[in-house]
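Researcher: Please predict.
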Amino acid sequence: MKKLVILFLFTIIFSCQKQSKVEKEEIILWQSYNDSAEVAANLYHKNKKMRFKRIQSNVLDKNAVFLPLYDEVSKMNEVRYEELKPLVLEQNILSLQTNLKEGKFTYEELILFYLYRIYKYELDNSTTLNTIIALNKDVVDQARALDQKVSDGVAPSVRHPIYGMPILLKDNINTSGMKTTAGSIALIDNEVEDAFIVNRLKENGALILGKVNLSEWANFLCNCPNGQSAVGGQTLNPYGRRVFDTGGSSAGSGTSMAANYAVAAVGTETSGSILSPSSRNSVVGLKPTIGLLSRTGIVPISSTLDTPGPMTRNIIDNAILLSAMTGKDTLDSKSIGEHFPGIISAGLHPTPFKEMRLGAMKSLMESDSVYKKTIEKLKNLGANIIEFTPPVVKMDGFISILNIDMKNDLPEYLRTQVKDKNVLKIKSVADAVAFNLRDSLMRIPYGQERFDGILADITSFEELEKIKSNLEINGRHFFDSALDNHKLDAILSINNRHASYAAVAKYPALTVPMGYKESGEAIGLTFIAKQFKEADLLRLGAAFEQAFQARQMPSNYR
């Protein structure tokens, strides 16, 4: 089992290709294993969300995912991989593009480098993060075609920095050539065309490397462990497999970035689903203002609050990825269509500390030592810090926004986005509930209480509109009382602590690696500002990143 994987890794891929070629039908890349001992070891974990019922997927065949690219990955050997490490690992996009321009490696080699790492860690059951659930079988050919265009002088003379960069997508984002499952067996055969943001990435020259795991239905199925889905199994945190929570729901996007499986990843957030896994995996995550990025072609929870967003290892990559996805989408009523030409520049031009006015929450100063030390260092660097206590505001009805929106938005997605509607077994949330009950052990091992809640919610349209209006007012008051009174650039929070307030306010939030607890668990500093202040947040984040340099690679994935 595990030995077979290790044998494959060290005698086939890492052998500098001295052996004779093994016939594909004889290759065993991966075998399932008995994860009962791992499950038992977490039975009394202090975090109840870490008390798993299973680790590996019962439905995903990793060989089906990895075999199609086996011959290509075999072209990368251990010697070349080690040569590329200092040129690629943890490098930002601008550095990678410089190295490409100088001929230090090609787009093809860049893709193979990341695939090599994915094969190395994900095919070994002792290191797998259960992060990768689909790979683009054509990605190496696509990279090779970019190299040829550059060689022939037919590549665009002015290229977006995302050109040729391998990107991973959360598996609720439509991608042609790969199924979009949202982690659910009900959508395991869901074939679609590219989402609007995927089209934008491809138009700018990005290469879609594959799809990553997530909390099933973007964490709106049940009170499940973060990063768990029936399709992908249990995503694990590279800073401590089965020790630390991955955060959710964009768990695969966060863990893949932490482990250096691609240049950048895209997540989605309704309330905390980018901020949570970004902070827990020591990466940069941006939840944009609603409307900055299109939601068309993304499996929905709430058309009121959903948004995709960039997840990266540094600020400049975050700005670049955000820029590459913007554009006016006529099918998304919230889409503003502005390209924000200053976004990339913002990632390169930090705000001077002496010009910063930042709000620090007194309750966090008292309860979190990492946050307190960070605030004190910011003061010493010259930032103007105003400590404050936010007002108490009601969040009544928040769950009804999600319930009623999903009850309406999911059927619309299934009606307009699915290629072959006869293949899928569901047309609504009610259908999904019934489908899951026909094999609950396989399909919903943790139940589906949130789906049940959707069906039970009878909030009327008029009541829902009133809830949305009240919560937007309350959410903005929660932040604006300090932002306006003290003329602040941003509020400072931790991880996704205040994500729900930012969600209903429709305010952007940026989390940046802040450090690590004594246990080794990662923690993020989260900047929250008013609508469409993304460029300001990126300038603040860039200054913080440069001064603190808090991110460290997970020790077992170096």
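Model: The longest helix spans residues 461-485.
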